[in-house]
Design a protein that fits this description.
The protein is mostly helical. It contains 14 helices and two strands, in the order ααββαααααααααααα. Helix 4 runs antiparallel to helix 10, helix 5 packs across helix 8 and helix 10 packs antiparallel against helix 13. It starts with a helix and ends in an 8-residue tail after the last helix. The C terminus is likely disordered.
Length: about 325
């Protein structure tokens, strides 16, 4: 028989904790520096770019014959001109190149990165050296990597010397696209491999031992155990890589060069417009790229990440104990 004091203690322990009045103010005060930094480095540039995209730089002569330059408000005229104007073909080509590079490179990186993770997860002599060597491409700056691969793919470079063919890899056409894909995959596949390896490290070894006792070979263990358990880490890695690849600029710019239609991306197109002092059109390209990246990220999370979010919600929901 419990006493009244014990019943009150249990009732107090089960009672949900209420938020004090000052807790919200303290949380807002502690988070205010972060919000201020985000407002300065994210919100203000974004709003400024959107405002700039509504203007167009024009020049002309006044009544006295002097040259007058300035920005003229055109509303959505820059966006309309991008989709239907004289440069619409260049925009759609850059949009296709951006999408093609993104899905091609990320797909190859997933295959190679998972293979790297499986190799690095095995216990063998020299595993630490292998992990360190795989990190080297990821540690090299992208501009340096572009110059390195430009030397490899030049007309008298290593690739043509080994294959015995004469291909202008750094000119135009599919050869230039293949050069960019190879250089991008070589540099960023270790990123996916390391994140997948981190997910594989937390898988208990008893699961594999039980699968071996059931007669599962290495392939069945990989399909039935490894991939499902590393799926959250793999999806995060793929999402990060997709967001990064959609903003690809420096590698094709350094490796192939600007104003090359076969490798021109939306970021390069925005840079080229700003380099010609067309800041309104460049800002419009940047806003379109931002919306495109947001749509791809939302679709990726909605389609492939929904089950993970639901699983986390189910694990976070406490189970009700059955009562008689």
């Amino acid at each position: 028989m419990m006493t009244t004091t014990q019943i009150e203690r249990q009732t107090t322990a089960r009672r949900p904790q209420t938020v004090k009045v000052g807790d919200g103010r303290m949380a807002a005060l502690l988070l205010s520096p972060t919000f201020l930094v985000l407002a300065l480095v994210v919100a203000y540039p974004l709003l400024s770019a959107f405002r700039q995209s509504l203007y167009r730089s024009q020049s002309g002569l006044d009544d006295d014959g002097f040259v007058v330059t300035g920005d003229v408000f055109v509303g959505l005229g820059n966006y309309v001109n991008i989709f239907t104007g004289t440069e619409a073909g260049r925009f759609y080509n850059a949009l296709w190149n951006t999408t093609f590079f993104t899905f091609t490179t990320v797909g190859l990186e997933v295959i190679i990165g998972v293979a790297f993770a499986v190799a690095m997860n095995r216990a063998f002599r020299g595993r630490a050296l292998l992990r360190a060597s795989i990190l080297i491409p990821w540690a090299i700056p992208t501009a340096v990597s572009g110059l390195l691969w430009r030397w490899i793919f030049q007309a008298d470079g290593v690739v043509n010397s080994i294959t015995g063919v004469e291909v202008l890899w750094t000119a135009e056409g599919f050869a230039a696209q293949a050069a960019v894909i190879v250089a991008e995959v070589w540099k960023t596949a270790p990123f996916i491999g390391l994140l997948v390896l981190a997910g594989m490290q937390i898988i208990p070894g008893e699961i594999y031992e039980a699968a071996k006792l059931d007669g599962a070979n290495a392939w069945r263990q990989f399909i039935g155990i490894t991939l499902p358990l590393v799926r959250p880490a793999l999806l995060v890695a793929v999402l990060f890589r997709m967001l990064d690849a959609l903003r690809m600029f420096d590698l094709p710019f350094v490796l192939i060069g600007p104003r090359k239609s076969s490798v021109e991306t939306l970021s390069i197109l925005a840079w080229d417009e700003s380099n010609q002092l067309n800041y309104g059109t460049a800002s419009a390209f940047s806003i379109i790229l931002l919306i495109y990246v947001a749509v791809i990220a939302y679709a990726f999370i909605k389609i492939l990440g929904a089950d993970i979010v639901e699983a986390k919600a189910r694990r976070a929901t406490p189970k009700k104990k059955a009562t008689r």
